[in-house]
Design brief:
By secondary structure, this protein is α/β, with parallel strands linked by helices. The chain has two domains: 113 residues, Urease, subunit C, domain 1; 307 residues, TIM Barrel. Helix content is 27%, strand content 21%. α4 packs across α6 and α6 runs parallel beside α7. It is globular, with a radius of gyration of 21 Å. Bound molecules: zinc ion (ZN).
Length: 452
Amino acid sequence: MFLPPLPSRPVSEAPPILVRGGRVIDPLRGFDAVGDVLLRGERVERISATPLPTTGLRVIDADGCLVCPGLIDPHVHLREPGGERKETIRTGSEAAIAGGFSMVACMPNTQPALDLPSLVDFVRLKAAEAGLARVRVVAAATVGREGERLAPMGAMARAGAVAFSDDGDGIASAMVMRRVLATCRSIDRPFLQHCQEATLTHEAVMNEGPLAAKLGLGGWPAVAEEIMFERDVRLNASIGCRYHAQHLSSAGSVEILRRAKAAGQPVSGEASPHHLLLTDAACDGWNTIAKVNPPLRTGADAEALRKAVVDGTIEVLATDHAPHTASEKGRDFSAAPFGCIGLESAVGMYGLALVKSGLMDWTSVIERMTVGPARLLGLLEAGFGRLFEGGPADVSVIDPDAAWKVEASNFRSRSRNSPFDGWTAHGRPVAVITQGRAFDLRTEWWRGAGAP
Ligand SMILES: [Zn+2]
């Protein structure tokens, strides 16, 4: 689907935006009250318990909705450069807006990998040109993501990289890993690890277990994730870099995270909707849409992950939005690529897994989609992940009780590989304001702020 170009209108000329009559929530300071939020340019001007005048304002009706800090997805794959058939920076940031996110952080496993300052610039310029969600760059820690030589991390941090990762692969060499952690520590950036000990996952395509055996597919043991996570925690003990384990999949990993945090290490962990809601049973019938990395595991693993999100051991919810074309996912299971898309179903799927199930309230879910990611990426101090007068005008509006059917065919993403297609979601994003523009997802949102 191709949409008409958005009007390029300077922020200063756009009318101020009034988000009217919602339940305003700022999880970090425990703020929770019904009221109006007035946004002028790129700042929150006022949060008022009494209704504000609407003359000359673009009004977003938030009656019955949650008005919260702009949601941040710290783990997406925008595929550009090199994978534009799957997604582009523009279509990916459109998908982010459609999913209720004001900001995403993109991973460096593009072609070429984001391992130079010029490539960090490229992504930032493309994102600015699209003018949709804010895009922050997670740059490669090693040249070509090959795990051998360190990339120019300091120069990339100066170019705007907010974090480092070789996502798609774990860094195999303990010596290289140690140097990466020390470098991240010295330039004050977090390292985001894709925990996968590759010698244990040779030809592995789904969770090791009876179903993999039945389907005749290579099994991927949980210990492949856990052993690298454990190694890194030990390496980092004497370094103290901000270390983040991406897309955790196993109960064992939750235990490692819990122990490291109890020992006072600056460690965080992340969960994705598919690991909370699905098990390896979704792979039955050689269903390639359920082929993800790390793989979907057992019901006990999913339960341990949900518990860890509830008790705060896992502070960050992400999607690992990983677009692939229909023809790639149409290959046989062993040959199809890993990954599923998630941006446009995330709010509703987290609502289903955590709120409708009675495990959590929306405020806590929102905290893990705002405060957690902002803290991880070092953006909390700049006011992201929060909602307060004077802070950035990044706001998401969510209808907390909306039950709606996920229809991948209507997604803004260029890809359709959603394991939740046809599911009934709980909670729906209805508006996003970011970079001075308002997108009302219920109406003519593609016209953007300032449209007559
Ligand atoms: Zn990964």
